[in-house]
Amino acid sequence: xxxxxxxxxxxxxxxxxxxxxxxxxxxxxxxxxxxxxxxxxxxxxxxxxxxxxxxxxxxxxxxxxxxxxxxxxxxxxxxxxxxxxxxxxxxxxxxxxxxxxxxxxxxxxxxxxxxxxxxxxxxxxxxxxxxxxxxxxxxxxxxxxxxxxxxxxxxxxxxxxxxxxxxxxxxxxxxxxxxxxxxxxxxxxxxxxxxxxxxxxxxxxxxxxxxxxxxxxxxxxxxxxxxxxxxxxxxxxxxxxxxxxxxxxxxxxxxxxxxxxxxxxxxxxxxxxxxxxxxxxxxxxxxxxxxxxxxxxxxxxxxxxxxxxxxxxxxxxxxxxxxxxxxxxxxxxxxxxxxxxxxxxxxxxxxxxxxxxxxxxxxxxxxxxxxxxxxxxxxxxxxxxxxxxxxxxxxxxxxxxxxxxxxxxxxxxxxxxxxxxxxxxxxxxxxxxxxxxxxxxxxxxxxxxxxxxxxxxxxxxxxxxxxxxxxxxxxxxxxxxxxxxxxxxxxxxxxxxxxxxxxxxxxxxxxxxxxxxxxxxxxxxxxxxxxxxxxxxxxxxxxxxxxxxxxxxxxxxxxxxxxxxxxxxxxxxxxxxxxxxxxxxxxxxxxxxxxxxxxxxxxxxxxxx
Amino acid sequence: xxxxxxxxxxxxxxxxxxxxxxxxxxxxxxxxxxxxxxxxxxxxxxxxxxxxxxxxxxxxxxxxxxxxxxxxxxxxxxxxxxxxxxxxxxxxxxxxxxxxxxxxxxxxxxxxxxxxxxxxxxxxxxxxxxxxxxxxxxxxxxxxxxxxxxxxxxxxxxxxxxxxxxxxxxxxxxxxxxxxxxxxxxxxxxxxxxxxxxxxxxxxxxxxxxxxxxxxxxxxxxxxxxxxxxxxxxxxxxxxxxxxxxxxxxxxxxxxxxxxxxxxxxxxxxxxxxxxxxxxxxxxxxxxxxxxxxxxxxxxxxxxxxxxxxxxxxxxxxxxxxxxxxxxxxxxxxxxxxxxxxxxxxxxxxxxxxxxxxxxxxxxxxxxxxxxxxxxxxxxxxxxxxxxxxxxxxxxxxxxxxxxxxxxxxxxxxxxxxxxxxxxxxxxxxxxxxxxxxxxxxxxxxxxxxxxxxxxxxxxxxxxxxxxxxxxxxxxxxxxxxxxxxxxxxxxxxxxxxxxxxxxxxxxxxxxxxxxxxxxxxxxxxxxxxxxxxxxxxxxxxxxxxxxxxxxxxxxxxxxxxxxxxxxxxxxxxxxxxxxxxxxxxxxxxxxxxxxxxxxxxxxxxxxx
Lengths: 609, 609
Description:
The structure is a homodimer of 609-residue chains.
Chain A: H1 12-22, H2 39-57, H3 61-67, E1 70-72, E2 75-77, H4 82-91, H5 110-123, H6 125-144, H7 147-158, E3 162-167, E4 183-186, E5 192-202, E6 211-220, E7 230-236, E8 238-240, E9 246-249, E10 252-257, E11 268-273, E12 280-283, H8 291-327, H9 351-382, H10 388-421, H11 423-426, H12 432-439, H13 449-460, H14 467-482, H15 490-515, H16 521-554, H17 562-580, H18 582-592, H19 597-600
Parallel strand pairs in A: 3-6, 4-6
Antiparallel strand pairs in A: 1-2, 4-5, 5-11, 5-12, 6-7, 7-12, 8-9, 10-11
């Protein structure tokens, strides 16, 4: 198999089901601020985007993996074809879909951007980081930058003339961002002299654009320790004059690039700022010590984006495994397995292969629902009105779930996809092992999944006086009550109701720990709580989709091809509710026991070496 | 960091605890057939082996990964240093430890070989496959070969002059071995002309030895279809004269080698036999159509070996993660986490890191116990006597668990180790990501883990009229009754008793399916049943170790350094019993619901593409 073949697959029927049948995006289209977007426009955009990523990005996925990035003359060289793909991405306007028309964007609903992002990441996760991080950086300048900064930096980033990065991590400051030592010293002209070393900077340098705009967290001399004293600076790779013309190189050097398990097409850099004391940066906006607040404002989007990386890769891993299972003949059916003369069947006929497939399908479709639910809440929150607080509260609450559960399960789905292919899954020819390697980083960067879990239990549960969580639990309770007597889904709805109750009890229990002198049990339980909550919400959303599918199926004429599709939605929801959701109750029971051997084991008891 | 550094780590204190304190290997030493082996000899051998693998094999692990294998002039070239390592391995006699002294071996207990195998695989899984497969092939010739074959092929394999392979898989015959199409036609002189293509042949060719002895499954013309008609042939790469001298090249060609996710130092070959109709093979022994029976005889050893690959890699991944956690400073303690002036602590002080570490520790130590239990049963079975049937029955029963649970959990442990290191875990410098990539194949080769699960539920549970399972369950019940009132472990022992009961009920339920017209539920449940049984046996063995550790700890003088070690054993057992074992009951409940959406979902319902 050639290395430049596209293996990316998406099932647009499933995606449109989520958008229009389950989440009824149509209800919000055609009205301000989406007056230019109707259902047809959304379908056409997504269909075109799928075509684009299959033609342009997919074939470069294994190329980027095999070639990786290199340093040539102090600058990162990206793999063959990335430059051309970058150019086409911006020519086609894919990165300005949900940008405000005021800035030249197309003002699409966030839900549409979520899907195009899924398609981009699924086709080529490594490549998509370059425009993805540029979008994140541009949003930050848009919200917090001065008019002059928008002119100089935002506009070129929006059209792909410049790229952007986020520079937080330092050797001694990973999850502990506040330990950053990078310094900023006023130069007297309003600019700052920046010094320091940043590591693990994704897309920290490359040859896709004539300039790279680094957003760098640093501490102005004399500022407070910890996160409160951090400010955010615009540090261009090449200085930009007030007329927008490129000037001299700034004092930003690529120290090295990392050799990684995956996402090899994406450069991961050590960046040295001010090695020659000539690194000039501008404060983002005009007020110092706002760095963390500014970063936080962008964090929801960045974390959702990581969840979407997971979704895109996992979805294609699943669909590739399915395609392999349909084609691969091996063994006979179970009732004739001892008969060597029985006809060989496709492995799709084997129970364990079906179990692996439906397991992958349920996780992929559940995470897509979760991401879209978040996007729809964000869209509705943007509309203002009395419900805006509710909607924006749900965005806050669900963000760590999309990031952490989406990334953890992406790796799990890729593992299962490899197993479905057997030996073929382990060799490079089929591309599934690359998905697995690529996806492992998603649980680590943009805040490790434990950081997400602590964000959930330490901040989000208590937000709005616990109101966001209560509204979330009430929504599920309402659904469960409404469908308790559903003709085909009642058993599954019962499991959902139990999971919801277990989740609520565990949340209460954890709050008791925090106030009752058992604070250290909270981080110990945090990841499992996040998983419980994610499994509960996935059960709910899959069942919600199944309810819709059942209604639609009843209205179909005999023999309609959609019948199998809807039956698949129902089976998938039932599978998840009856096989995965019981884990919520099991985890609740484990956590309720307050078992703390992890904490009490002596440090020297982990090993004698 | 240089690529030629050893990162392999083992905790010999823990290993010796298992051997001598928990499994009391000392009781069987010093008496026939182990009259030459005392506790001192075992300790010295293992200590020397650890030194050897750290010095010779460990530094080549990342070298083999980076260089991989190549084909030069139609022959596989192994990575730098492998040839020298092979030579030293055989010079030191590491591969003849448990070989019968009659064949020049050292006749060590199997339990000792299990540990040296763990050390070999942990230090360099890819390299260790070459001598590992050679050992497997030599055992087969030893048991089934004619005296002439032993002279010609066995003796050179035992001393590392020849290597060996197992050639089963064909393009259309993976898990379905019986679909093999390779042909054997009598040449009239007692030998056979072999034709066919074998794929995924591990160590199928290389430059470590002057000859490679392929054991090839093929069908003599006219033999029955399926596995019953298969015979096993000795097919040397270079023909061997009756005087042992090497003759002409046999007609065996390397078609290609695979590019894989991991174990790059191990060649994975497509082998073409008889392309020029000049491939000569000898039947193993004298009776045709015994190929599968002969392979099966060796399968327990080969499957245990894969479990040990998992154990070796996972154990070192855990110990590396622990070492990183001890050294890496990040953040403050939970009670001062908001205070930027609080001292930074090692991440070992963070609850979630401790949870990850104890989780890895429990799986690694539990799997080591499981493998050693199997080895001790094998050793005792070998002694004969009235208990031999019981012991050999337990070997049969536990083998699929060691292979499948050992390999699945190895990947899980490596994943957790990566997460413990964060970004450092994802880059190549620390070697953990290689462990993760290497370990993914373990769940696939030597019979996929579903094949193991079907071997367990379809063959092993019913073996000896269900007697092996009953004896196993009775052993656990006895332990649980004996320690129900244990001062520190009683709660955990209670969970074990519940897990044992759940396991028994599920086994009964599954037997009912097989006989009650619900046969297809059996393969659907098989993997989960294997996991339940593995988790039950690990809970038992970890608690058994904890009981011993508690006794030993009570006898220690104040301030003895072993106190922390024993406390670690107790905490680990409790962690597993209280956090992992409840999953046994949860799975039992799920399976009892007989939920079959995986089977009923229409084929077209998996996706519309």
